[in-house]
Design brief:
Helix content is about 55%, strand content about 5%. It has about 250 residues and is mainly alpha-helical. The relative contact order is 0.09. The model has no long low-confidence stretch (mean pLDDT about 85).
């Protein structure tokens, strides 16, 4: 599905009522329904994903979570499957989806043979290592943009919500509420993602040790840094460097 901006994307969803009716009919008949990338939004718009697990292209995950709060979004998952509804994430995730369908209809052995022929790693389970910080959230909020810029300029300093709120000339509760409304996140977690984004660039493009990188992005405890990296990106700093280093 092609679109030039988020409003056009939402308008296309609004205009697909006959398709949504057909999707609901197929679900009632017990058919398997699969969607990849932005087409996952069709399933959510039709109501099929209410209280169901789903994934979508990582750059749309924030928008998706806000628009479909009843869907159990698995933000970084490559593939989700529940009640004959299969969803896959960004771009090449369709290959994982295809292999899963082959497995369901023709068995595990054939799916494994196809994965080897297609050079698809069947063990990849997360989009997180491939994401960038600039998720397509569709926001144009000047306060949050100012906060993001301020956090970027103070990325190595200890986080203080009070200091951030004072710099923005707003109350702490107002700041927390706006962050949640616009990004579906907290200021601290957003700063952590900024720090990890910088750490990833250093792992890709420098020979600095993990401990040195940790200090450059505002952390002082290696164990805590490694746990955060693993939690958010589903791999260790060393594994990330081996996969994505430019040299």
């Amino acid at each position: 599905m092609t679109y030039t901006d988020l409003p056009q994307f939402e308008q296309r969803l609004h205009n697909e009522q006959p398709l949504f009716q057909k999707l609901r009919q197929w679900q009632a008949e017990g058919k398997i329904i699969a969607a990849n990338c932005t087409s996952v939004a069709y399933l959510a718009e039709s109501g099929l994903l209410d209280q169901k697990k789903a994934t979508i292209s990582w750059w749309l995950s924030t928008w998706f979570a806000r628009r479909y709060p009843n869907t159990l979004i698995q933000q970084h998952a490559i593939l989700t499957e529940e009640d004959n509804l299969l969803c896959s994430g960004a771009t090449s995730s369709y290959m994982s989806l295809g292999l899963r369908l082959i497995e369901r209809f023709a068995g595990h052995d054939l799916a494994q043979q196809c994965s080897r022929m297609m050079l698809v790693d069947t063990h990849r389970a997360s989009q997180a290592p491939y994401t960038t910080l600039q998720q397509y959230s569709g926001h144009n909020d000047p306060l949050i943009e100012s906060c993001q810029l301020w956090l970027q300029h103070h990325i190595e300093q200890p986080f203080s919500l009070a200091e951030l709120a004072s710099a923005m000339n707003v109350g702490e509760r107002t700041l927390m509420r706006r962050f949640q409304q616009v990004l579906g996140d907290t200021p601290l977690h957003h700063l952590q993602l900024m720090r990890l984004s910088k750490a990833r660039r250093l792992l890709e493009n420098s020979a600095l040790a993990v401990g040195e990188i940790m200090f450059k992005v505002g952390y002082s405890d290696v164990s805590s840094f490694r746990r955060l990296f693993k939690r958010e990106l589903s791999c260790s700093p060393g594994e990330y460097r081996r996969r994505f280093a430019s040299n």
